[in-house]
Structure prediction request, 1310 residues.
Amino acid sequence: MEISREILIGMYSKMLLLRRFDEKVVELYRSGMKGLYHLTAGGEAVAVGVCSALSQDDYILSTHRGKGHYLAKGGDLQAILAEFMEKQTGCNRGKGGPMHIIDPSVGMLGANGIVGSSLPIACGAALSAKLRRSGQVAAAFFGDGAANSGVWHECMNLAGIWKLPVIFVCENNFYQESVPVSRHSSIQDLYARAAGYNIPGYGIDGMDVSAVYEAAVEAVQRAKRGDGATMLECKTYRFHGHSEADPTKGLRYRSGEELAAWLEKCPLKQAKARLLERGWIADAELEAIDQRCTQGIEEAVNFAKSSPDVPAEWALKDVFTDDQGEICHEGC
Amino acid sequence: MEISREILIGMYSKMLLLRRFDEKVVELYRSGMKGLYHLTAGGEAVAVGVCSALSQDDYILSTHRGKGHYLAKGGDLQAILAEFMEKQTGCNRGKGGPMHIIDPSVGMLGANGIVGSSLPIACGAALSAKLRRSGQVAAAFFGDGAANSGVWHECMNLAGIWKLPVIFVCENNFYQESVPVSRHSSIQDLYARAAGYNIPGYGIDGMDVSAVYEAAVEAVQRAKRGDGATMLECKTYRFHGHSEADPTKGLRYRSGEELAAWLEKCPLKQAKARLLERGWIADAELEAIDQRCTQGIEEAVNFAKSSPDVPAEWALKDVFTDDQGEICHEGC
Amino acid sequence: MKDVNYRTVVAGAIREEMERDERVFLMGQGVQAGGSYMTCEGLFDLFGPDRVRDTPISEDSVVGCAVGAAITGLRPIVEILYCDFALRAMDQIANQAAKYRYMSGGRMAAPMVIRTSCGYGASRAAQHSQSLESMFFHFPGLKIALPSSAYTAKGLMKSAIRDDNPVIIMESFQFYRTAGPAPEGDYTIPLGKAEVKKEGTDITLLAISAMVPQAMKAADSLAGEGIDVEVIDPLTLVPLDMETIVNSVQKTNRLLVVEGGTKRGGVGSEIIASVVEEAFDHLDCPPSRLAVPNTPIPFASNMEDLVLPNSASIANAIRRMLR
Amino acid sequence: MKDVNYRTVVAGAIREEMERDERVFLMGQGVQAGGSYMTCEGLFDLFGPDRVRDTPISEDSVVGCAVGAAITGLRPIVEILYCDFALRAMDQIANQAAKYRYMSGGRMAAPMVIRTSCGYGASRAAQHSQSLESMFFHFPGLKIALPSSAYTAKGLMKSAIRDDNPVIIMESFQFYRTAGPAPEGDYTIPLGKAEVKKEGTDITLLAISAMVPQAMKAADSLAGEGIDVEVIDPLTLVPLDMETIVNSVQKTNRLLVVEGGTKRGGVGSEIIASVVEEAFDHLDCPPSRLAVPNTPIPFASNMEDLVLPNSASIANAIRRMLR
Ligand SMILES: Cc1ncc(C[n+]2csc(CCOP(=O)(O)OP(=O)(O)O)c2C)c(N)n1
Ligand SMILES: Cc1ncc(C[n+]2csc(CCOP(=O)(O)OP(=O)(O)O)c2C)c(N)n1
Ligand SMILES: [Mg+2]
Ligand SMILES: [Mg+2]
Prediction:
């Protein structure tokens, strides 16, 4: 598959947006924004490569590290920043926060604070699409750590028996918090396990957005053809600490050389180099993209800051649908 | 490996004991014995083949279908029947019953009413043996149904990383209650999944006690050498219904022809034929073995019947060790 | 109205709802063959493998599948045979299903039903005899119904399936052998309305699930002694019909709660703590609980009988309270 | 005695027990690097990978491994960072660990410790802020300790490790930033003995875990108004020191229980139901609970503050009760 200039520029722009967003979150967090923030940097190619292969009404299910997935899926900068800042205009009215971004309007069915727990929900969304014959696909992101939780196995098996239109996207960034994959996993190439479920599994260079995109397009086609699930294991790396609570970038348990080597493989760097190499983009345009990202984020920050705080009493609503009125199925 | 006459006769005798025990349980159950009974018949070769490769101080962990495993491991006929009959002399003082046989004196660390839940306990016992450098091995029996529960995956992975001296013995009898393996499992040869954990996996004819024994001996050696776990998938069949609550032998959801074909492969029949074919045994000796089994069971029934009922007030003891006195680690 | 078997009623209620609403579907172990307790008999033949789905032993993920299907527009029913097995699914039940609406700030809902049991008295021992309604009701966002008759089994099932929230229906398997009147055709019983099974003036006896018939028996026998018991079946624990309970206590001035689960942290503790908050001055004696005395359920039937309340121990407790 | 950081004390207590008894070992996610909250710092360097074991995200099976190791003679400690994650391990905790001794008829025991948190107030939202002590204590066979100071963290940890039963230790992560006196060397605090944190005559205020400092603050401010509060920290919920609680209520004639978990089915319901059974006639007003009002924990801090009790809401509740 040849990736077009338009698509590659689009993906580069999205990745840059994710990177600039991370930077803004660090800044806001350092100046007092509440919550636990697990950032994307290093993993942009996986988020953007997969989501670029999906349509707006396809579903994604995400993890604690879900901000990038949301934005890659077309998420609303204002809504997410307002959520972080505890505003009425937040996508989840201040009830969700950074680990629970949910926005059905772009098919983002949920980040999740419990590692692996979005996998069954993705299977259920895929089952629902199948039963409704809607042609939708569900992509489930999960980490190398999640791959060793029981639900992963159950979900692979369910997807295998039921031929669910689901894509299992493993972001193998080699660490489960401080625990290296060599210590938490009995094999290192996790995609090899897919065969045990009659599901095609692929190992992908997760720092190369084109490679991820190509694999995802194929997986989406397989799902839409009715041929069921695919597992993509994308080898990647996180450039930050596990969360922003660790400002050492994880150097307590991993080496500076290792980090430096991976920084070399930065997915943005690679995509930019490819664009330049092919003569698909000029410096000025690169600059313009960056400005658009920065400006969009700046505007969203301003929007969020000027939004009214979520009223404390809202805490008592939304336990049941009856507390609030009608059930809502946006984006289904 | 050539299996000696002595071993084969021993295994045949054990299998016959299990079969006769089943028959007695049916009889007692029909005449009012309480509890839910999942019988062994059809699966004798797996229980006996594996346990014959273990020493007395090795561990087994078992399932709801655990009576045969217990007896194959050298369990006490009197203690188990007294347990079923709610007697003081029962191996678990009437508190456990048929789904919870526990007898550390022969390394039987527990049947389990929750499918798959004995697998982690087996891993823990194996870890304990490893840390204590005791040289013990733990064998964990589980069904095809259990293989699709999350704990199975977690345990395979733990055993793989930690190189635990554990043997995963899958009794694939093709049904999870009424659900055929084709409907609950995305692949049919479950042992193929073992590769995903760096664990050797083998498909075994579970109706052939010699084949099971040979595979188990090799697995025990691997474990004792420090080379970790093995998965043995033994294809077998249950001749009864899922439990004695189903007197139709499962014919509600499986065909009489299928059952008949498997009855032909009866592990006792096969072992007996082999013994006769090799001239290792005469009819009189076969008769004597059967008599010994029947007589042992009869004596145990009498023992149980004449034992005093468990006192109702014992229900209030044994919640904590403090309720009863000292902690006990028989057989460790 | 002729009596119908409880399990036939359950299957019938599911069938009618599946006919009414094509978004409704069923998942569970062995449901295609009619279910281990035959509470799904005939459904597979009518609706086929898409809407009547056998599952592996993957409780956590199957509940999670229901969450995913529910938030995208379907109305799944999941059967978990014994509530003991639901301990395998607590993450999806309590961290996901219960919290989805809240965490999304009201943007999503998870209209789904988990059918499970609460049961004992069948010599099934510690891992097949728990009554975990008080564990479930501790998690905000779950509705909990415990139908105690064929009639309520149908009406509550229909309400649960039509509810926009996750509802756990707990059926005591002791009821599966019983029968009772249950009208043909459509009717619902609202979630949140208790049933006064018998009016009385001397004491309020609140009974949960399989304890309802035991309570009625106790009330009957006490009537012979001139003790007039009011028996209430709350039917749902979330929402809980505190109004009916408090009104009753204000009339009788006494309260006994009887349940088949563990005493510590049981339903009784919650109801008593709520009643003392709302009707303390009406109480003539300490409100009391009858429940399993903080032991697991043993196998032997005499031991099981000892730890579980029954009509005799209920009657005794009431006699003591009225002394 | 100089103040020691709470987390240092935890690590120190585990270290001393591991030195004392070679059967003790530790499993958990990230414990080799010292643990996410650095409560295991230094242990890996001292004891190596056999006895300080990093685990995958496999809570259910790791707890099960602990059960297996415990029943075969070792004394495992498992760390589950947030109790919310323990919902993944409920089968092994509640169906296995809790019931092993009972189901075996006293032939086995599972001496193991599960260290987990109960915490809130850190903007972690619905899945990282639960306080599930009342879920755990519903299952007979588990002991539950909630140390609320450096001193008790050490003493209770040692008792838990030496206990022959499964013990769940819940540490509120709010304490990790605090320090307090904790003597060097060996001491234990018995499981089942409450601590009267402050004597008083007007009302008994029973506070759980992170609510203890809030309760003390409330008592302080009420003292200025002439209200003399008796503050009790039960320290362990199983066994529960009912004697101390009932004695206190008999003296003060009033009871307020404050906790950081959900109100419905919380610790407060149980304690109130027990106290009314034992000391009904001593109560001058309805015993009351302060807890999270049956919502999940929201993210935004003003909402979180609203649903969680604090010294101000405690003081207000007490003023109302004494009016
Ligand atoms: C069930 C569960 N266990 C533990 C945690 C704590 N935790 C949060 S993120 C994380 C590491 C996850 O690793 P991985 O899946 O590889 O994702 P990554 O953070 O590397 O993106 C852990 C252990 C949790 N949230 N849920
Ligand atoms: C977690 C759990 N889910 C469901 C059950 C109910 N159940 C008991 S045995 C059984 C079938 C188990 O099948 P398999 O593992 O193949 O063992 P088999 O009975 O065939 O020996 C089921 C579903 C259970 N005991 N535990
Ligand atoms: Mg990772
Ligand atoms: Mg089977």
The domain at 5-316 of chain A is CATH 3.40.50.970 (Rossmann fold). The longest helix of chain A spans residues 5-30.
